[in-house]
Amino acid sequence: MRNIFNHTHSMEILTRIDKLSPQSQSQWGQMNVAQMLAHCTSFQDIPMGNSFPPRGWLGVLIGGFVKPLFYNDKPLPRNMSTIPTILIAEEKEFEQEKEILKQNIIAFQNNGPERCSTHPHPFFGKLTPEQWGIGIYKHLDHHLKQFGV
User: Fold this and answer.
1) Who contacts 121 (Cβ-Cβ below 8 Å, separation ≥6)?
2) What is the dihedral of CA 126, 49, 13, 41, to 10 degrees?
3) Do 115 and 55 touch, CB atoms closer than 8 A?
4) Is 84 a residue whose pLDDT tops 90?
5) Which among 16, 42, 53, 80 is least buried, having the fewest CB atoms inside 10 angstroms?
6) Per-residue pLDDT at 85
């Protein structure tokens, strides 16, 4: 399985991000391309230890049962609900958001699994660094496919 901690896999994601433009159109969902980039950065801030969103009651109730969705080899479903604190509704500047996300991916990959936060995912709960690495790759892949790259 692909994992953002793997240098080859992170470089593939970075190359795909570089194929985006301010004119890239979403194939599903509500966010424009700049908002999607900001959303991906906000999501990645959780395992990087920069953000600590609380667990919601639904995640506490069923998150552990559906947790494999985050790190199995199946793509994430379209229009899957997101963590409310990282839903980006305000307008964002494309080039700035693109660069921030790329730098976060590089930092996360360089920091390696040993620097991954132990803060639980707000829905799925406690994840190992390996599960985070797979899940981050899957999340980025999902949103890049959303914008055709």
Assistant:
1) 46, 59, 63, 70, 127, 135
2) 110
3) no
4) no
5) 80
6) 84
Amino acid in the structure at residue 80: M
Residue found under tokens 């190992």: 128
The whole-chain average pLDDT of the chain stands at: 95
pTM equals 0.94
Confidence (pLDDT) at 80: 80
The letter for the amino acid at 62 is: I
What are the extents of the domains in the chain? Answer: 7-146
